[in-house]
Structure formats: structure tokens, C-alpha cells
Amino acid sequence: MAEDMITETAQTPAGGAAPAVEPASPNSPQWFFAPGVTPDERARLTEEAIAALKTVFDPEIPCDIYELGLIYCVVIDDSRKVLIDMTLTAPGCPVAGDIVQSVENAVGTVGGVSAVEVNMVFDPPWDQSRMSTEARIALDFY
């Protein structure tokens, strides 16, 4: 679902949304906003949504889903509905539904957000290269 929104909003800088923030690394999530979202609101929503995402942990790995690199894309439309493309460390994860619900609940607490929809994707597949430096240190992967 978020892929459709990205296509619609990211076509041209003049008529559509551009990425809100340059990704910190090639594996950081892409953020897109509808044209009606002001720059100040973009910054606030990005900061608060990241903080919310960092409260959700993979129950099998002692690290939050944001630093693990499980969030691929975040799109915020004109109504402030948040569409999130995310993945799991393994496609057959038995707690997939719980993680999706936790993401929806956490991001739903961000001020101004009208709704949250999570789309589970497995392309590209997740691997350890998507983890942030913070996650690598926390998991002793150096």
C-alpha cells in the first residue's frame, strides 16, 4: 500500500513529495510526505515517529525494530495517515501479528497522526547488513 503512495507522491519535486530526510545510510528507511505537510511538521513527525518505532522490540532479538533495519519506508499522506512498509528478520516469524500491532499502536500515539497502516514486505529480504551501528554494538556484532 505504501508503495502506491510513494509512486503518487514522489514523482516530481514540484508536484509531489520528496523524501523528508536524506537516509542516514543506504539501509535507512525512506520517508515521504504529502505536499501539504509543512517542513516543521515533517521534522516533528519524523522525530516522534522514529522515537515511537524505537519502543518496539523484536521479541527474539534484544534490539528495537528501527535500529534492526526492519522499517523500509514511511509515507505520511495529507490526512496524516502513516503508511509503513516493514519486514521481519525471518518471514515465518511467529509473532508477526504482534509486531505489526505494536508498530500501529506506537506510531498511533504520535500527535497529529490520524491512522497507521503497516504493510509487511519481504523484498528486499532483511539481512544483518541493514542493522545500524547502534544495533551492531548492542548485539555485539563487531
UniProtKB/TrEMBL annotation:
Pfam families: FeS_assembly_P (PF01883). Residues 1-25 are annotated as: Disordered. It comes from the Bacteria. Residues 9-25 have a biased composition (Low complexity). InterPro entries: Fe-S_Maturation_MIP18, FSCA_dom_sf, MIP18-like. Residues 48-118 form the MIP18 family-like domain. PANTHER family: FE-S PROTEIN MATURATION AUXILIARY FACTOR YITW. This is FeS assembly SUF system protein. It comes from Methylovirgula ligni.
